Amino acid sequence: MAKLGILDIGTNSIHLVLAEVEPDFSYKIVDRLKDITRLGDGAFVARRLSDSAVARGLEVIRNLVRLARNRGFERIEAVATSAVREARNGGQFLEQIARETGLTVRVITGSEEARLIFLGVQHSMTLTERPILVVDVGGGSVELMAGNREGLLRGCSLKLGAIRLKDLYLHRNPNSKSMQKQMRALIRTQLEEAFKDFRRTRFERIVATSGMAGNLAEVIHLERTGRPLPQLNLATVARKDLEAIEARLGRSGPKERLAIPGIDPKRADTLFPAATVLRMVLELCEAEELIISDKAIREGVIYDFIQRHREKIKAEQEIPDVRRRNVIGLARRCQVPLDHGDHVAKLALQLFDQTRAVHGYGRKEREWLEYAALLHDVGYMINPRQHHKHTYYLIKHSDLSGFQSEEIEVIANVARYHRRSHPQKKHGSFGALSGTIRRVIEILSAMLRVADGLDRSHFAVVRSLQVRLGATITISLQTAGDVELELWAAKGRADLLEKVLGRKVQFVKIRAKGAAA
Length: 517
Prior knowledge:
This protein is 50% helix and 17% strand. It contains 23 helices and 14 strands. A six-stranded mixed sheet has the order 8-7-6-9-11-10, sandwiched between helices. A five-stranded mixed sheet has the order 3-2-1-4-5, sandwiched between helices. A three-stranded mixed sheet has the order 12-13-14, covered by helices on one side. The chain is elongated. The relative contact order is 0.08.
């Protein structure tokens, strides 16, 4: 299974979701972590992330990334939203993240945020052909999304996030009624304008996502029943209860808000504007209740990643080792005949293993030989003539993740010398290497030349080989048909093997049992 970490750098919170993608492209969440970092505090007035917010954010991100990697989650998709998107120093913040963690963070637009949120909701509840409205109240923005089981029909992003509204209208203590009135007027104006574009005010359901909507649902349920909310996902919130908690939050000071049972202390100053946005959405849609979804942008990023990387995920499940996977991936992209490459690799490794007493190399060099054998014909994609030289170029300049640069140089050179001229110091790519590495390339390419000759027809008529070491190296070939072409090719390419091993090489045919005459 593929391991995927999602890092969501939001205006209010920073989340990490660790997911395992199954062979059928479903996924399961193995852990969720978050920190209400308040990265956007003051950012929408000052138009920059404060130094303290940046320091908090970097510390949280470093810790979350370290935790993910310690648990084997090397692939991390990171996204950032409105606070980073709008801040003058947002780019500098992203550069610091890259320097300290190696992550490239994707800053998404409001419309892309809406698409990803709806994707997460779409896959978490049963939808019909009738449209629903999804509203996500974040710290910097509010996303409105209309869609059905077929997907997103329309989405928009409004600058009505709870931290933004708090900074613009609720920064005094206590909050003045006139400032609350201005805030409500702004919310109503933007929502009414948005709903004109949606061309309808009635939806089958109104679904709210985000931590603030969830905390409001928890507070309301606890106040109504005296018990904690047993399940957040698909919980319902009545409009009248939302109006009541909005009014209570609006007339309460900081201490009174913190005393409300169930309230998250880190959200106490932002729940009032969030409640106002949600209540007005219900009013304008003439709806009486909200349904809460605990799935949103992070789940949307997972589904989006799966859709965009299905082939790569499939390859990872088929070939878990990253080095082998990238080698085979390059071979497939270059459209080489994999059966031939596999068979040449098999024969080359038999030759390597049975001559170990002479050359003395181990697992590392054996692996280089195998990968060079799998890739030795990739140069055909450019041109059959001189394809061995094109093979060197393609291996050298392809993104073979998991290999050190010296290893790539060895594999490229071994593959390059599978035919035509022997390795020579006057060849720049070979001559620049150390004597130790040149010796490795000479011996491995000598074996590859013979193995490739033994599958000259590409029909695997030489099934396997056995080596007997003596004053002469005798290679017995178990065959399944006429092998004159293979013998001719192998004998013509055995000179380098004789030179590097210091012994003559001879070939003996042994017909495989059951093979046709």
